[in-house]
Design a protein that fits this description.
The complex is a heterodimer of chains A (about 110) and B (about 110). Chain A is mostly beta strands. Chain A is built from no helices and eleven strands. In chain A, strands 2, 4, 5, 9, 10 and 11 form a six-stranded mixed sheet that branches. A five-stranded antiparallel sheet of chain A has the order 1-3-8-7-6, with no helix packed on it. The N and C termini of chain A lie far apart (about 40 Å). Chains A and B meet through β5 of A and β5 and β10 of B.
Amino acid sequence: GENVEQHPSTLSVQEGDSAVIKCTYSDSASNYFPWYKQELGKRPQLIIDIRSNVGEKKDQRIAVTLNKTAKHFSLHITETQPEDSAVYFCAASRYGGSQGNLIFGKGTKLSVKP
Amino acid sequence: NAGVTQTPKFQVLKTGQSMTLQCAQDMNHNSMYWYRQDPGMGLRLIYYSASEGTTDKGEVPNGYNVSRLNKREFSLRLESAAPSQTSVYFCASSEAPGGNQPQHFGDGTRLSIL
């Protein structure tokens, strides 16, 4: 089955710097890669997702890149702000029945220092 | 529009007690999921329901049962609670099954078993 590894487990940056979180996946058939942000004590919320037919997607200060050959994808946050502090989870899945459920990485705790 | 609603928000049980966690969504989604979240472990799928009338095991189903009561509601039951089931439980829903659709999460149930 699918396995998703996420690095680093913790990341501390200064306000205004960029942050990059990387994930690798094992199933070459995976074709959907969402990223979730979870603030302390809150629900995970989808912030951006990418499908395998796209190499990069941007939404304001957030971008995700996908390298299908290397089986890894990354979240990029530019001009970080204190409100970006949270735990970020990547996930991967592929379409189809019982094989198609999301498999999550173990999370990255991002701290943005003012 | 409440999205995904979970009850209760907090619960303390004694070992061996039983209880049912409730989840309801008002987005007319077909698929629903139950996850558990433990420190450093990310989100792990317990059970899912691809559509009304169907349920299937996820990664960590032992000790749990589920019922898809109708299209809106998906409950999770602990028949004989054990301390290892102390966790935060999240319900989620998506428009379609197969894992390659955005999932929307509820606020979670924080469950402690003594």
